[in-house]
Specification:
Elements lengths: L1 E9 L6 H14 L4 E5 L13 H7 L4 E5 L4 E5 L5 H7 L5 E5 L8 E5 L14 E6 L10 E2 L4 H13 L4 E4 L1
Parallel strand pairs: 1-5, 1-6, 2-5, 6-7, 7-8
Antiparallel strand pairs: 1-9, 3-4
Length: 170
Amino acid sequence: MSRISVVSVMGWSGSGKTTVVENLIPCLRAKGLRVGALKHDGHSFDIDDRRKDSGRFTAAGAEVTAISCSTHAAIMENRPLELSELLARICDVDIILIEGWKGSDLPKIEVHRLGSGKSRYADSKDLIALVTDAEGLCEEIPVFGLDKYREISEFIYGAYSCGKLDFVLS
């Protein structure tokens, strides 16, 4: 078994999750953390261009296709994976920020924007913080403004340092 630190940034579509994660990454890196990011897409996506060699390998039926150059690499798993399998494949980072996976048992930071027209996400037993532009929504957990990335990163770093974001991979 191994442990990694993980926090899910979740909320309804249009709430600002991507913006929050995008701005937290450099804040956490400035604290010396190596940061991984994982995005849940509720729709289908395609990152492998079928006109290129790797896309042709995938189209031919490869279950896994990899591509590499001098600056980066990508591995396409051409099959669905469970969240724990995805997390197990991300290595050499200190913390993984996940966008989505509302239904997981991971520590969660909910992003709620009044302009979205949606209420807060109802089922969030693993909620550790709320990021919102609304006043007085929650008193049980820390609440941060939508653009308070430095403060949010301080909170995450503190939770990381205390082991509160540790997730056990079996």
